[in-house]
């Protein structure tokens, strides 16, 4: 009987790419995104006035600061960690080291779980969408139009959007998992072939014992006339 893991196992992704190629592209893409975020955060730390990450209370309607130095330092550390994890996945897929792919796969599972909790919270507490819209700045585009929309329509739109994101993330998780299985299975096969070859060489008896060589007949005796 075929297990569910083997039923969904494939070595191709995006209809044309190999799972190794897809994992390498995905790792590089995540590294680029986190590198851009890291540059923005470092620039904001160097010149907070220019990037204006401290929004005033009149812009938000509250006394809450969007970003302070401590939060930016934490975000910077997270971006550096993400770059490291994505780099490990890219290197592991390229050099076929399965253990290097595991941290990136765990991050994908964690991110998928967070998005699932967001979808569940929207279903359980639908009024949170209106509360979130009220906290947005007054200059936010289409704020009044969104607040005047029916709450059921907003919940359906948010769930549809989050559902599409979850489906896409699940597909990426499957691609990385198939890459991990491919790399680990390839390494196991190479080890088994190597061990089998050595065992065969060691366990085979010598060639003389396998093929029985008939003894040579003694030469005929010399008979004198």
TrEMBL record:
This is Lysosomal-associated transmembrane protein 4B. It comes from Chanos chanos. It is a multi-pass membrane protein. Required for optimal lysosomal function. Blocks EGF-stimulated EGFR intraluminal sorting and degradation. Conversely by binding with the phosphatidylinositol 4,5-bisphosphate, regulates its PIP5K1C interaction, inhibits HGS ubiquitination and relieves LAPTM4B inhibition of EGFR degradation. Recruits SLC3A2 and SLC7A5 (the Leu transporter) to the lysosome, promoting entry of leucine and other essential amino acid (EAA) into the lysosome, stimulating activation of proton-transporting vacuolar (V)-ATPase protein pump (V-ATPase) and hence mTORC1 activation. Belongs to the LAPTM4/LAPTM5 transporter family. Pfam families: Mtp. The chain crosses the membrane at residues 28-49, 70-94, 100-125, 152-174. Coiled coil: none annotated. It comes from the Eukaryota. It is found in: Cell membrane; Cell projection; Endomembrane system; Endosome, Multivesicular body lumen. GO terms for cellular component: cell projection; lysosomal membrane; multivesicular body membrane; plasma membrane. Keywords: Cell membrane, Cell projection, Endosome, Lysosome, Membrane, Transmembrane, Transmembrane helix, Transport, Ubl conjugation.
């Amino acid at each position: 009987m075929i297990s569910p893991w083997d039923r969904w196992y494939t070595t191709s992704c995006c209809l044309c790419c190999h799972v190794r190629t897809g994992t390498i592209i995905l790792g590089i893409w995540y590294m680029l995104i986190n590198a851009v975020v890291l540059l923005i955060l470092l620039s904001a730390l160097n010149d907070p006035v220019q990037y204006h990450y401290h929004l005033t209370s009149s812009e938000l309607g509250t006394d809450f600061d969007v970003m302070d130095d401590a939060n930016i330092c934490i975000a910077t550390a997270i971006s550096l960690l993400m770059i490291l994890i994505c780099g490990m996945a890219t290197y592991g897929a390229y050099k076929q080291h399965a253990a290097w792919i595991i941290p990136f796969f765990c991050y994908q599972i964690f991110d998928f779980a967070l998005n699932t909790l967001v979808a569940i919270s929207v279903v359980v507490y639908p009024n949170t969408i209106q509360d979130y819209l009220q906290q947005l700045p007054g200059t936010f585009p289409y704020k009044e139009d969104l607040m005047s929309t029916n709450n059921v329509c907003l919940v359906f739109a948010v769930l549809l959007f989050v559902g599409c994101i979850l489906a896409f993330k699940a597909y990426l998780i499957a691609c990385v998992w198939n890459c991990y299985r491919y790399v680990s299975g390839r390494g196991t096969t190479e080890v088994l072939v190597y061990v089998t070859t050595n065992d065969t060489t060691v366990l085979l008896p010598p060639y003389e014992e396998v093929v029985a060589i008939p003894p040579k007949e003694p030469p005929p005796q010399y008979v004198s006339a």
